[in-house]
Design a protein that fits this description.
The structure holds two protein chains of two kinds. Chain A is α/β, with parallel strands linked by helices. Helices cover about 50% and strands about 20% of the residues of chain A. Chain B has two domains: about 110 residues, Rossmann fold, CATH 3.40.50; about 120 residues, 2-Layer Sandwich (Hypothetical Protein Tm841, Chain: A,domain 3). The longest helix of chain B has 15 residues. Classes of the chains: A alpha/beta, B alpha/beta.
Chain lengths: ~550, ~280
């Protein structure tokens, strides 16, 4: 399970109660542990496609929590846990990040003002479990939910003895969590088949264990490969850029690229053609990159040409700037009508959604936007009623988190889980109808669409009894693997044939991804039109990772 | 003496119905550049859509010259009282001109009705007034019949494009439906004299399904099915209406130039006189 076992964990119970300082140290230690393990956690995502990036998302969420604690300047347990919960809430990325934010919210709820003793810690974990289950619409066992439930139960038992020490309660929770992680393959067959444990459960274990290590003052494992040095220099450098950079539009785009013989000067020179405020640190095997650009896809595509990308982050600076400006001028009366905020990556998809009247949040699979980014986009709309379209199953919860606390506005989510669903919902928008009418129409429109996502398997795996090679073209229909083919074109053909069956008068939309030529897409559309006698439209979506996304309605 | 019913050419009432009910029509004017035509008299719908497809500058429509109202009213008041039924004042100055001329000619014998609708919508109102007149109704009863229908009108119109509406400057709230990278069929309605966007759909089949309004209405008395350039579609839709709402009187017709200039080719619409269901 990644970390070497520390025998000390079972034995000592020295720290009785956690004050603000101890909690801040624990949260920072947990975030640090996640940072070291994020790639390993990402790698056990069972879905054989570039998916939610559980480790990266949990790390990003925990970092936001730690940053907020530093900013809040709180000293007691209640203040620190509240700041952590607030930071996590705004920074929550992906489903696992959202669930993590709820666990921290539970801790904050149970925290007394001075210090957290064993009983309060157990109560906090129990509250966190309740919140985590509540935020997921159909909870599945064998996931991070099972892990927090086991941790909470063990904490309750350990705290049973009056006056139990917090450290002992946390140690019991860590052990139970580890055992729960080991059980996840028995609870979720898809994990067993792929020979992995659940990534979110593993992430929670790493976090809790990291917190325990930090509390005990035990040394964290050494930073590998000089990466830690990059991290510290990085924070200072980007802060300077943001303090002095003049850009108020475009996207603040960051990523870490792992490759071979990376030349920072060459990367810098190339990125100056893409945008401003270019920062490149590192080189050789790993480099960290920052650029402000109007074309984040171009920057990311260039990064991918250099190696494997991690920690991709794209923030819409204009939205942030406008949100900031709006808060300053403040209390502007929201306008009548319904606005739509939609998440999408790929310039073509973004333009399409904008043309349908939506405000676009940059993000998608592998680049889940935070709840804060979605909130910023909602703020730019000025409409009284706002509907959010997450367009990815891993973004639904972050979108829901962005709903709370609006005064004088109604913000709701129509739970679209794919681009074609989001487009169908956006098309159904009627500015003159009420919010409820729109939600009904848009939900029905989204449900009437079937989606196929065509991509290449991220790694060798076995899924639903089929052996899949790394890089093999696969087709996923409504989140179920349905085609394993030799070419991308064949995967599209197989999926369209499967989806169109029994649907007379269907309209097929091919959203062509990054790197697909327009003439290729048109030829494929012509062929499908002839083969099925249906209406086929092509949109040059430009989305990364998926050469084609196909909608049938 | 039976009450006489007047309407304007934008009501698009089929010739046979006009003849049967004895409705008098005052024509609006259609201009292609320097050339002007009296709607339905000097220019048929077929000729109009033929020219529309080949012209670069959009033709203009203008309300009837007051002299045409004066001519119609002066003649008719010698036979009895008049109810004059017209398209929404928000779309055209026609109804206002009718009021002014009516007041000059014989204010106490002519009632002017603003249907707050257009084309088949105001046409159905005029037809209701004419039926009341035929049944021996008074001027007040005929006007009330038109108003009653105006209050029970349900309209949905599908467009191939909103380009004509936009170029003609009548886009209004439907502006939100303009543009987009996908081929979309916008559906609009007319409410309180104005065009409102209803929805957009991805295919013609869905658009036709969307405008088959009678499915969701109660106490249906009349249905109009109108088109600009797609008679087969309109015939099929009317046939379906006959099947699904057998109690209703079905009017099949064609949008004339006044509506056609804003809707363009491929516009098809349904008007239903009925009660909304809860």
């Amino acid at each position: 399970m990644g970390e070497p076992r520390t025998p000390a964990r079972e034995a000592r119970t020295r720290i009785h109660a956690l004050d603000g300082e101890a909690l801040a140290r624990a949260f920072a230690g947990g975030a640090e542990a996640l940072r070291r393990q994020a790639d390993a956690i990402d790698a056990i995502n069972v879905f054989p496609v570039p998916d939610g990036d559980t480790g990266t998302n949990m790390l990003s969420t925990m970092r936001a929590a730690v940053e907020e604690v530093a900013r809040a300047d709180a000293h007691d347990a209640a203040g620190v846990t509240r700041a952590a919960a607030q930071g996590a809430l705004m920074g929550a990325k992906g489903n696992s990040g959202v669930i993590l934010s709820q666990i921290l919210a539970g801790l904050a709820e149970a925290a007394p003002e001075g210090a957290i003793g064993g009983a309060a810690l157990a109560a906090g974990l129990a509250a966190g479990r309740a919140k985590a289950y509540a935020v997921v619409s159909s909870p599945r066992e064998g996931t991070i939910l099972t892990a927090i439930a086991s941790a909470a139960d063990a904490a309750r038992d350990a705290a049973g003895a009056a006056d139990a020490a917090a450290e002992g309660v946390l140690a019991a929770a860590v052990d139970a969590c580890e055992a729960a992680v080991a059980r996840t393959p028995d609870l979720l067959p898809v994990l067993k088949e792929a020979g992995v444990v659940d990534s979110g459960a593993q992430g929670l274990f790493i976090l809790l264990e990291g917190m325990l290590h930090a509390l005990r003052g035990e040394a964290q494992a050494a930073h590998e490969g000089g990466f830690g040095a990059i991290d510290i220099t990085w924070l200072a450098a980007t802060q300077q850029v943001h303090a002095h950079g003049g850009e108020t539009s475009g996207y603040c785009t960051e990523f870490v690229v792992a490759g071979e013989g990376l030349d920072p000067d060459a990367i810098r020179a190339r990125l100056r053609g893409v945008g401003e405020s270019v920062l490149v640190i590192g080189g050789g095997d790993v480099a960290r990159v920052h650029v402000h650009t109007h074309d984040p896809e171009a920057a990311l595509a260039y990064g991918r040409s250099l190696g494997t990308l991690r920690h991709e982050k794209v923030d819409d600076m204009e939205a942030q700037f406008r949100a900031l400006a709006a808060r300053r001028t403040s209390e502007a009366t929201p306008v009548e009508g319904v606005a739509v905020v939609a998440v999408a990556s790929g310039e073509g998809l973004q333009e399409l959604l904008r043309s349908l009247g939506a405000v676009v949040v940059h993000g998608g699979p592998t680049m889940n936007p935070s709840a804060g980014a979605i909130r910023a986009a909602i703020e730019t709309t000025e409409a009284r009623d706002v509907i959010v379209l997450p367009n990815d199953k891993n973004i639904v919860l972050a979108a829901k988190l962005a709903l709370d606390g609006w005064s004088g506005r109604n913000v709701r989510v129509v739970e679209t889980t794919s681009v074609p669903q989001g487009v169908a919902a956006a098309i159904a928008l009627n500015n003159d109808a009420t919010l409820d009418e729109n939600i009904e129409e848009m939900t029905a429109a989204a449900r009437s669409v079937r989606t196929a996502e065509i991509t290449r398997a991220a790694r060798e795996t076995t899924l639903q009894g089929r052996a899949i090679r790394a890089g093999q073209p696969i087709g996923i229909i409504d989140n179920e693997l349905r085609a394993v083919e030799e070419t991308i074109g064949d995967a599209v053909r197989a999926c369209v044939a499967a989806m169109i069956e029994g649907r007379a008068g269907a309209i097929v939309t091919l959203y062509a991804g990054e790197g697909v030529r327009e003439d290729e897409a048109s030829a494929l559309a012509d062929e499908l039109r002839t083969a099925h006698g249906c209406d086929v439209e092509v949109v040059m979506g430009g989305q990364p990772h998926y050469p084609y996304i196909v909608g049938v309605e | 003496m039976a009450v006489r019913i007047v309407t304007d050419s934008s009501s698009d009432i089929p010739r046979s119905v006009l003849d049967e009910l004895g409705i008098t029509v005052v024509p609006l004017t259609i201009s292609f550049g320097e050339q002007s035509f009296r709607d339905g008299i000097d220019l048929t719908a077929d000729e109009f859509y033929g020219r529309l497809a080949s012209t670069k500058d959009l033709p203009k429509t203008s309300q009837p010259p007051p002299a045409l109202f004066e001519h119609a009213y002066s003649h008719l008041v010698t036979q009895g009282e008049v109810v004059s039924v017209h398209l929404s004042a928000k779309f055209s100055g026609t109804v206002e001109t009718a009021r002014q001329v009516a007041a000059q000619v014989a204010g106490d014998k002519i009632t002017v009705v603003d249907t707050r609708s257009a084309s088949m919508g105001s046409g159905l109102c005029a037809i209701a007034a004419a039926r009341a007149a035929k049944a021996g109704g008074t001027r007040e009863e005929c006007a009330a019949a038109a108003e009653h229908v105006a209050g029970r009108l349900h309209i949905a119109v599908a467009f191939e494009t909103l380009e004509y509406l936009r170029r003609g400057g009548r886009i209004g709230r439907a502006q939100a439906f303009v543009g987009g990278l996908l081929r979309l069929q916008p559906i609009l309605t007319v409410k309180d004299g104005e065009a409102f966007p209803v929805t957009r759909v991805r295919s013609r089949a869905k658009a036709l399904e969307e405008i088959a309004l009678w499915k969701d209405l109660a106490n249906i008395t009349d249905i109009g099915v109108f088109h600009t350039t797609t008679p087969e579609e309109a015939a099929a839709l009317a046939e379906r209406a006959r099947r699904e709402a057998p109690q209703a009187t079905i009017y099949e017709g064609r949008f004339g130039p006044v509506l056609g200039v804003h809707g363009g080719p491929g516009m098809i619409g349904v008007g239903v006189v009925a009660d909304a269901t809860a």
